[in-house]
Amino acid sequence: MQLKSLHIFCDIVRCRSFSRAAAENGISQSSASQVVHQLEDRLGLQLLDRSKRPFVLTPAGEHYYEGCRHLVRQLTKLEDEVRNLEDRHAGQCTVAAIYSVGLAHMSAVMRHFSARYPFAQVRIEYLHPDRVYQAVEAGEVDLGLVSYPEDSRTLRATPWRSEPLTVVCHPAHRLALQQTACWEDLQGEAFVAFEAGLRIRAEIDRALLVHQVEVEVALEFDNVETMKRAIEINEGIGILPTPTVAGEVAVGRLVQLPLTNDRLHRPLGIISRRDRNFDVVGQQFVELLQHMDGDFFDGPERLASSSIQSARAPEGLAATP
After folding, report:
1. Domains (range + CATH), the chain
2. Contact at 8 Å (CB) between 143 and 270?
3. Model confidence over 33-52: pLDDT tens digits?
4. 127 burial class (0-12, 13-18, 19+ CB within 10 angstroms)?
5. Which strand (E) or helix (H) includes residue 275?
6. How confident is the model at residue 65 (pLDDT cuts 50, 70, 90)?
7. 47 phi and psi, to 5 degrees?
8. Rg (CA), the chain
9. What is the pTM of this model?
10. 74 closest CA partner among 94, 88, 90
């Protein structure tokens, strides 16, 4: 079996998209799909459940992906070390990011990083928040990008930036006629909520309780992208980080209403192991993140990137808070 096929399979799962993985590997989307079919034929079982949107890994696919991801990462790291032994600016850093951070920020960040350090490589993996912590702690990745970062005995959390949360609704919803919203405006509304157990859900529930506002939870999801799709078909309103809806708002698919009272923010941070120091590439990447201010992430460049991304079909894409 060619390692290239395993690499493509891992990219498809990591990106949650056949088209994005195909673009990263310089092949067609049909070729990327064929790679998965060939792997499934060889194994005699299904790796991806394509009947769901976005697609999900089968139990066998989940186990196979974890093994392939580790194998591909180790091989890539070995090749990188051998190829760049004498170049201090060359090397690789693997970053695990929650989906909403990766999709909202990383495209523009990576363009700037590649322009500044053309011989260095940063590889982004999108994971559930719990998996980000596990991957960093296990040494599977060099650092993680999470919301509501927490220190632990083994992990160090470095503050990065804070994002405002905003009310989001369909353009035909009654609230879309307003410029802003207060908590009382949400009384009795059908609500597309984050899944119970997530920190962001707890913060939103706390604010609703403080303002004595009751909503009807219509749907619960563990990722921002699916929440946006539900709001786009007018299944309810939601409260989401502002940068994650910039693309949809720009093209008129969603309307955002900043909260006028008791505004909420989602803190973002960088987690790493306490017993490890960043290598050269890791340090360069962290410094770049920390020196990019709010205007960069909320400004025209990031908005344009998000608009282009949102205009594409949301094939297999998921974004976890």
Report:
1. 1-50+58-66 (1.10.10.10), 163-266 (3.40.190.290)
2. yes
3. 999 999 999 999 999 998 88
4. buried
5. none
6. very high
7. -100, -35
8. 20
9. 0.65
10. 94
